[in-house]
């Protein structure tokens, strides 16, 4: 199959790696890609948010499936003109992508679909935000309404910090002050064709910069899959997934279908397991990063067939995806100064040595070539991904690979998957 993947991060590199692993002879192109992706497949310089250009390229090159990786092209509506030209697209149109683009929209859909979530209070001014914070009380949860690259959410006991966070994001739009929910977080992906859904395996990511969940929020510093602790409460991963399917994913997709804005693509359910049950923290309209890096290496069912079935409305006839029993761990290597002021342009070495280790691969996120040398071009630079027979082995492999790599001033967490490995 001729496949065009839009995006330039580790998530897209993980998708490409999964497609290549099928050994099905796919012709894969990525726009715009990065240095690591370019070493594996062809990359082209097309603006992934320009739907007309993407559609033209797909038509001219006989592309059979367009896969939209990041949120920005989805929110910009890139899928709509491509789909209008008759090309299957794995990614929701602009209207349905508001599930990620607007917290207020997502909360409305959840309310109308009967999906359990934290109580929201919307604020358009600082005074309204302060009143909402005082009404709901500490711990305070403040969320930017629109896209914020994973940095729009603050959970804090500090009222002043909550007010400052709300004040900052109110410059960019509304904020949502939300009821605090306590528990373990779970990321669960569902493929959707607008009517039916098929679940992938759960993962857990680490959003804070530092060990022990300290420091600022980031786009994600690591992840692991599966989640063995779900078995303690539900008896099996399958039972948990079935509950979330019935309680969250299907009602949400069917509600969007009812509104005339079918959700076709990847529904990311950001969940929290509370004493009262599962609650939704947020929805995203695409594969999560870094969770994709640990979910896809365990996927035994060909990813290309699943995405094409979703894009062409045939998901209902596809069996549930199957997964290998391996444990998977990924650790993100970030630039000095990330997330506020990442230092770029610094040389990276040792990736080949890391990738040569058993069970280890490296997904490039923010890399480029400068005078023929690999350099960091952004904050989250690489994801070192490892699989193993258990979490101890996967974790040891991931960190061994990470220590093969050199980047001046690099930072990473040392506690990814430590609890499950113990």
TrEMBL record:
EC number(s) reported in the record: 6.3.4.13
PROSITE patterns: ATP_GRASP (PS50975), GARS (PS00184)
Gene from which this protein is expressed: purD
Domain of life, source organism: Bacteria
Cofactor(s) required, per the database record: Mg(2+); Mn(2+)
Residues of the ATP-grasp domain: 107-312
SMART domains in alphabetical order: GARS_A, GARS_C
One GO-annotated biological process of the protein: purine nucleobase biosynthetic process
Gene Ontology molecular function terms on file: ATP binding; metal ion binding; phosphoribosylamine-glycine ligase activity
UniProt similarity note: Belongs to the GARS family.
The keyword ATP-binding belongs to this UniProt entry's keyword annotation: yes
Pathway: Purine metabolism; IMP biosynthesis via de novo pathway; N(1)-(5-phospho-D-ribosyl)glycinamide from 5-phospho-alpha-D-ribose 1-diphosphate: step 2/2
Organism in which the protein naturally occurs: Curtobacterium luteum
SUPFAM superfamilies for the chain: Glutathione synthetase ATP-binding domain-like, PreATP-grasp domain, Rudiment single hybrid motif
Keyword check for Disulfide bond: no
Coiled coil: none
Catalyzed chemical reaction(s): 5-phospho-beta-D-ribosylamine + glycine + ATP = N(1)-(5-phospho-beta-D-ribosyl)glycinamide + ADP + phosphate + H(+)
Protein name: Phosphoribosylamine--glycine ligase
Name of a matching Pfam family: GARS_N
PANTHER family: PHOSPHORIBOSYLAMINE--GLYCINE LIGASE, PHOSPHORIBOSYLAMINE--GLYCINE LIGASE, CHLOROPLASTIC
Keywords: ATP-binding, Ligase, Nucleotide-binding, Purine biosynthesis
